[in-house]
Amino acid sequence: MGAADLIDQIHSGIFQNERLVKLDTPLGSNTVLVQRVVGSSRVGRDYSFTIDVASADENIELKQLIAQPVTLWLQQTDKSYRPMHGFVHTARRLGSDGGLTSYQISFACWLHFLRFRRDARIWQDVTVDEIITEVFNQHPQAQGAFRFALSKPVQPRSFCVQYEDDWNFVNRLMEAEGWYGYFEQSNDGQSHKLVVTDNLDSFKPASPQTVEFYRAGTNSEADALVQWSGTRTLQSTSIVTSTFDYKSPLYAKGTNIPTIGNQGSLPSQAEIYEYSGAYTYLTQDRGDALSKIRMEEWESRAKRFHGTGALRQLDAGQWFELTDHPGHDSGNVQERQFAVLSIEWVIENNLPVSRSRVEFPHSLQAKVDAMRASFGAAQPAAATQPSDGSTGFFMATVETQRRTVPFRSPFDHRKPVMPTQTATVVGPSGEEVFTDQLNRVKVRMHWDRLNSGDEKASCWVRVSYPNAGNNWGGVFTPRIGQEVVITYVDGDPDRPLITGRVYNSASTPQWHTQGQLSGYKSKEHKGSGYNQLVLDDTTAQNRVQLYSTQTAAQLNLGYLVSQSDNQRGQFRGTGFELATDAYGAIRSQKGLYISTFGRAAANGDQLDASEARSQLSAGQQLLSATSDTAKQHGAADMQAIDSLKTFTSATQSGYGGATAGTASPGQDASGGSGTANGFSDPVLLLASPKGVGITTPTSVHIHAGENTTMSANSDMNIATGKSLVANAVDRISLFAYKLGMKLIAARGKLEIQAQTDGIDLLASKGIKISSSTDAIQLSAEKEILLTSGGAYIRISGGNIQVHAPGQIDIKGSEHSFTGPTRYDGQPPALPKSVVNDQQFVLKDETTGNVMPLAPYRIEGSDGQILARGITDAEGKTVRVFTGTREQNLKMFHEDDQA
């Protein structure tokens, strides 16, 4: 038949009758004629066909075909047709010859569209079938064209990220779950449907169900196998996995799944061990199931069967029963049932036209010729011939496995390896911080176009902190609105991890000088306050500031300058400053030393109080010398010197640092050994080489529960603006060794009283009593006795005695001895008072044991607190003084209720 005759028959509309293949396109039924077909279909993937067609129309616009539906009809042995529906993805003009133009059309199932859509989005707490459904429904061609046939319940995924094209995303999800798909064609050829399954039992049998094996030399158009072979390949024999779950870090998670038996003598070392990633699964059952899927994929590949023949009724996703094969007929029915995993077609249509036509580049002619040649001249069970005598060729090659062996798709599609990214911390509206017990936060990825930016934007994301341990480490929880750096554990898109924070134009750095200022600054939750640590590295002006806006509490070290935000102000001094607008306290349980005796570069012992101790010793020597001298001269000695000795001794008590013996094995204990000075008692010591000043515009209060000792190598001066009042419960003793003593009242009266005893005035030389402007009055209740050299004057009982061993000389211009008369002047009345005092020992009321260093308080009968403090080493309280005798003093341990 010539080209002109062929064109006429195409236009007649009857030319495709009895053809091996025919094609429906949007161009119309009489536009193109199928010449050759090469196609393939695989379970778990897709199917596609490439078709060489001829047309009398040399001006077909190829764009009319792209993404349009077409149907390829395959003639069956009973002359019926089986459809293969799909969508055109490639159209090519091959060339023209004798009035006919050759084109090439490639079409595939709707899954092909998944390759051309890429997305970046997040699913949370959604099952995989729900995720896949959402992805499929983004494609109009897929809507209503798929279903799930799963034998097991589907577990939701807490966090699942797509960051790739739909094709890779869907396939890797199904591979991980052990799912795969095959297609069902509608009888009218207008649609096809994807079936997603996890079990070969969902495959439908071929029609007819049995496939015969024809020996070589048999020539027939029946659907039969002319070649059949089995292949066994070595696979790994076990899979061992491990994973780390940060929610249960002490629990080792892992799986160990061996292969099934009946596979021959397999090498025991063929184990696959791999780290499956971070927290791959929640339960052990889930982990075992995932590893079993991997093992079943290997076991499926271990034994495959391949066949070739004019298998017009077969398609991937079907199963058939093999008959008439000498290697299988002896087996049971289950052993002769095979699932079709993949199929490849090579077809040449039975057109009544010479095969010697021009072969265009990209034509399928070479592939068809190669397949024909592989069968030789006879081409058994492949050639087809309609009534017009035209010859065609149909050959299918299948890959199968037994239905009894589970099938899993190869793990060909991997998760994308995620790059380092940034994201924004998010949370509920109105909140500044949103976190949980692990200080995790929620983030909105910059590429996420679906989430609104609240607490639902992501899973809880862990944060890499400067240090992290069990109740120790660094905590800087990211705040809502901060831009954070996201890395992915093992590059896994489902395992984000915050590893840093960055500034941007909306969140600018607090300190942005020429690198002089660095440090940390926090922000008050829902407020404008902050806390900060500033490290100022200005040349020759190094400074550290620890600051809180709450009461402006701050510690400044080094070169002190005023600072306002990013601005360095004027010089304020050097050294250190501890300041606050509120309260302050310095507490040191074992002792405190405050000194201006310097140490170069702050070297030496922390409590090196040698200068202060030297001063205390000097004072002790002075006190001892003057006390002894005073005692010799009849003055009171200083009994409190012993307490000064005890205090001085307490300032020198060496103690050792940690030694290698206290370090754990393997730790570096070098350095840090030796001894240093300490205090044996919790004393407070102040010392200065150039003086100590205590000043206040109001009052200074000094109290000692026991003794107060003061000494000075030179002068001790006391001056007051009003009164100087000194009271002593027992006695007052004043002693001056060299230059005498003066007691002068420039104004007002000088009173010296001994209210319950006498007064002794003694001088080694003269005693002079004079009144510059008034009288001197001496009075006594009993008598006044003046004596010198044996003579005396006694005034007593209203009488005056003037006696002398020598002359009594009385001279005057007049002498009056009249009388009697008397002067009844009375001496002033003296007040009487009593000072009561008491000291207590605190004991446990249950055991009777003394309670040293225990807090206490003492109350009077009226509930007034008379004393409060801590008992000494012997359990004693301070001595309590009262002006009246208290009959009902109460003492409480401070932990008790009054």
TrEMBL record:
Gene3D superfamilies: 2.30.110.50, 4.10.220.110, Baseplate protein-like domains (3.55.50.10), Gp5 N-terminal domain (2.40.50.230). InterPro entries: Gp5/Vgr_OB, T6SS_Rhs_Vgr_dom, T6SS_RhsGE_Vgr_subset, T6SS_Vgr_RhsGE, Vgr_OB-fold_dom_sf, VgrG2_DUF2345. Transmembrane segments: none annotated. Residues 436-503 form the Gp5/Type VI secretion system Vgr protein OB-fold domain. Residues 523-630 form the Putative type VI secretion system Rhs element associated Vgr domain. Residues 655-674 are annotated as: Disordered. Residues 672-820 form the DUF2345 domain. It holds the Pfam family DUF2345. Belongs to the VgrG protein family. This is Type VI secretion system secreted protein VgrG. It comes from Paraburkholderia fungorum. The lineage of its organism: Bacteria, Pseudomonadati, Pseudomonadota, Betaproteobacteria, Burkholderiales.
